[in-house]
Amino acid sequence: MTVSELVKKAELTVFAGSNGLNNEIVGGYTSDLLSDVMGNADAGCVWITLQSHKNVMAIASLKELAAVIIVNSGSPEADMSEQAEKEGIPVLGTTLGAFEISGILYNSLNA
Amino acid sequence: MDLSQCFNNYFAMHFKYEIQGGDFTNAGQASSQVKQVLKQLNVDPKLIKRVVVCLYEAEVNVVAHAWSGVIDVEVNTERIQIVLADKGPGIPDISLAMQKGFSTASPQVREMGFGAGMGLPNIESNADEFRINSKVNEGTTVEIMVYLSQA
Ligand SMILES: Nc1ncnc2c1ncn2[C@@H]1O[C@H](COP(=O)(O)OP(=O)(O)O)[C@@H](O)[C@H]1O
Ligand SMILES: [Mg+2]
After folding, report:
1. How far is the centre of ligand 2, averaged over its atoms, from the C-alpha of B47 (Å)?
2. If you measure CA to CA, which chain B residue comes closest to A36?
3. Which of the listed residues A88, B35, B45, B56 has the most CB atoms within 10 Å of its CB?
4. What CATH number is associated with residue B86?
5. Would you say residue B5 lies in a domain?
6. Could you give the CA distance from residue B85 to residue B68 in angstroms, rounded to a whole number?
């Protein structure tokens, strides 16, 4: 599944990094702790979090993640969006909480 | 950077980065640059991933806990050696600091998702060798080694 397919399916907002919408999704990781993601997420994962600052993109880029979803109607800080554009890693948004959007992603990947 | 050295049988490369304590906006830049170089050198992606985890965590520790620091990276045909030397408060009890979940990070830093007390444990599980030396009120030196030629 590509990021743009997930955007359609889960009705996500695309905040930034639309140049990466063709990234292929291989999994997901849900966490608000940066070291947890650093240590445990795999390349090609979608990172589901309420964090919305620039350091999220540093990690997303170092780990080669497919996209970031900000939960609970959050939105990225300006320098996070800027970094997302540079890295080609989409920053997406949802009104849902982490549990619900994780479930949708999980089911989509295992359908 | 002069990549021509790489065409010799044995080569060594050396780079240095400076880090400012508290500078969260630039945290991860040294890690990102080292990652690019290792990719250009065709280092095994699995090893690059391990180096990136180690270096990022160590870099963020200088930003979050120290005043300033220097990162020294040396790559040769056998290994990647990273030394981070900082000026800072030091670590009074290193074995306590190594425990998963132990953190002295400020509430603001924790709110950003740092300060989970998983940084040093992440380094330990990704490095082939890992040493910390620290003097209270002077600073901390972290040495990380990842071998290229391990089967
Ligand atoms: N470079 C450093 N200078 C001073 N203290 C440090 C340094 N690196 C780590 N520490 C101490 O070790 C603790 C644990 O580090 P770590 O496992 O990376 O967790 P965290 O950074 O999330 O607190 C820190 O909270 C801090 O007290
Ligand atoms: Mg840390």
Report:
1. 21
2. B118
3. B56
4. 3.30.565.10
5. no
6. 9
Q: Are A28 and A54 spatial neighbours (Cβ–Cβ below 8 Å)?
A: no
Residue type at position B100? K
Number of helices and strands in chain B (H, E): 5, 5
- To probe the interface with B, which of A32, A33, A35 has the most B CB atoms within 10 Å? A35
User: Which tens digit of pLDDT belongs to each residue from B117-130?
Assistant: 999 999 999 999 99
pLDDT tens by residue, A19-61:
999 999 999 999 999 999 999 999 999 999 999 999 999 999 9
Q: Is residue B104 part of a domain?
A: yes
Count of structural domains within chain A: 1
Domain annotation covers residue B8: no
Tokens representing B88?
């800072």
Q: What is the pLDDT of residues B60-77, one digit of tens each?
A: 999 999 999 999 999 998
How is residue A77 written in tokens? 């800080």
Find the domain containing B30 and state its range.
Answer: 18-147
Could B125 and A61 be called an inter-chain contact, meaning their C-beta atoms sit closer than 8 Å? no
Structural domain count of chain B:
1
- The answer as to whether B39 is a domain residue is yes
How far apart CA A33 and CA B117 sit, in angstroms, is: 10
Q: Which of B78, B79, B62 is nearest to B70 (CA)?
A: B62
CA B8 to centroid of ligand 1, rounded, Å = 39
CB contact under 8 A, A53 and B53: no
CA distance B16 to B82: 10
